[in-house]
Amino acid sequence: MARGGRAPARLDANSKKIFSRLMRYLFVDHKGKFIFACVLIVVSAFASVGGSMFLGIFVDQFISPLIGQTDPDWSGFIGALCAMGGIYLAGVVCNYTYFRIMVVVAQGTMKRLRNEMFSHMQTLPLKFFDTHTHGTLMSRYTNDTDVLRQMLSQTIPQLINSTVTIVGTFCMMVFYSATLTLVAMIFVVGMFLFTQKLAKRSGGYFLQQQRALASVNGYIEEMMSGQRVVKVFNHEEKAKAAFRTLNEDLRVNATKANVLTNVIGPISNNIGYIQYIIVAFVAAFLVMEGGWYALSIYGFTQGLSGALTLGAIVSFLNFVRSFNMPIQQITQQFNAIVQAFAGAERIFEMLDAVPEDEGGDVTLVRVTKTGENWYEEREDGELWAWKVPDGSPAGHHFVLLKGDIRFYGVTFGYEEGKTVLHDISLYAKPGQKIAFVGSTGAGKTTITNLINRFYDIQSCTITYDGINIRDVRKSDLRHSLGTVLQDTHLFTGTVMENIRYVRMSATDEECIEAARLAGADSFIRHLPDGYNTMLTSDGANLSQGQRQLLSIARAMVSDCPVIILDEATSSIDTRTEALIEKGMDKLMEGRTVFVIAHRLSTVRNSHAIMVLEHGRIIERGNHDQLMAQKGRYYQLYTGKFELE
């Protein structure tokens, strides 16, 4: 984490690029609205400047001449007062309108940004989520987008308004008195240098504040989802202590950032008051002393031989306040600017993350066979087949999808220099059930991760129906695999919708049959609304075993030639497991099934059992063969050796 002055330098270097990128998002759908809002902002700023100028004219033409008269002529006074009120009213209307437009623009831009973030997130590899906590990612969708919204809807309009006001006001100040302008600018320069120094120091702390806030959000989310575990192990006090540490880190960084920026406003205001008093004093001195330094362009326009008039002084003092106010507003908005740039940097970091490479040109298609020829169909094909590009006149040939998977001397590690699998060779033909047993960390789940291509091997070969899986497009590969994970995840929706999740075209009858085969139909029908019962919070209204049964039913609906069961029955009682096995036997007909299990009773009927230890297959064979060998599997099965 950046400290001291380093982070601000990095933010300064990226700020222009970040701002430019943000504006590109804004211009995609709202360019016209934004330009119109800018026009209104300029009109509003000029109305403010024009009102201050009109005030001086009003004093010189209507107030000063009428002072001391016994019978003053008020004929033009009301009209002039209405004209000045009209100018200010126009500014108010423009101000109200452009703020409403910018709210619409900001919300639309954030909608597009969130959509793009979510779409891009779906393309990221599993490794990205392994290296980023859920809370950190959620913070980018919530906190970071919110500070960006505030910048677009409030800060940017304010900055434009303030800039136009500063330029217009400065020109009018020179118009009224160059001498007084010079006096006023001495204070402005001092104020600018002071605020710039504080701004640079606070920049790094805002970046640290955003990161600390993400850590706090992540920890809260983690504790909310893990409350059962926290209470089971009496971890409440330790959890509170850990949260207090994270919360204190957030407080420290937020305090450092906001203390520096929050003192800018009060100090700027006090400098402005001193400036106002000194300018008024100098103006009075110039009026009394006269001389060339008291000349005013305004005075010449009023036919007063260039003399500095009472109206000029009134307008000039009003301009001084008008000039200081936008400067103070800019400095006060610095907090929002730095926070927004810090949030944008984190959002763009996610958007710039390299998406998962589909990696391959072999696709999965529906086909129909007519005579000796295969024909690709859009939706109504009888069978699935791999469409393999080749040098034939047709440009491709079809390989019927069967589910034949083979490993040839596969060695793999998640990190360079840390090998997890060593020289793994195996084959699984359609209709075979292959089981993997071994201690935690032996490499069982890694094998299924490689089949899914969650991670790619750099050398060696894994084939699927004789095709190197690195040549198969990942989305099509996973479409052919039905997977049940130990860590079940159910989505907000009905039970029926969760079962149908993997194949949206599945009928209600197919989903119910899958639930029956999985042993889930009985408990589903006892739910308040049966298959229409709404599930929320990852199926919190179901037991862990019930959630696992729904996951198995979901895999059955997928109707895939290859089924992967990763501890799929670990949370199911033995009676229910026996019922499921009957359905599973029917499901496995003609399919390739990979099973990872700690409960060895679930792998007895496997065609081949692979015993893994430290990433190596140390034994292989069916149940009877391995029991006869009286090796590690025998020890595990008889209880002479326990799985870790």
TrEMBL record:
Q: Taking the first listed entry, what is the main subcellular location of this protein, grouped into a coarse class?
A: membrane
Q: Which GO terms describe its cellular component?
A: plasma membrane
Residue ranges annotated as transmembrane are 34-57, 77-99, 182-199, 273-294, 300-320
Q: Name the keywords, alphabetized.
A: ATP-binding, Cell membrane, Membrane, Nucleotide-binding, Transmembrane, Transmembrane helix, Transport
Classify the protein's membrane topology as the record does.
Multi-pass membrane protein
Cite the GO molecular-function annotations of the record: ABC-type oligopeptide transporter activity; ATP binding; ATP hydrolysis activity
Subcellular localization is given as: Cell membrane
UniProt domain ABC transporter: residue ranges: 405-639
- Which top-rank group of organisms is this from? Bacteria
Asked if the Swiss-Prot or TrEMBL record annotates the protein with the keyword Zinc, the reply is: no
- Where does the ABC transmembrane type-1 domain lie? 35-339
The record's annotation in InterPro entries points to:
AAA+_ATPase (IPR003593), ABC1_TM_dom (IPR011527), ABC1_TM_sf (IPR036640), ABC_transporter-like_ATP-bd (IPR003439), ABC_transporter-like_CS (IPR017871), P-loop_NTPase (IPR027417), Type_1_exporter (IPR039421)
- What is the name listed in the Swiss-Prot or TrEMBL entry for this protein? ABC transporter ATP-binding protein/permease
Recorded source organism is Candidatus Gallimonas gallistercoris
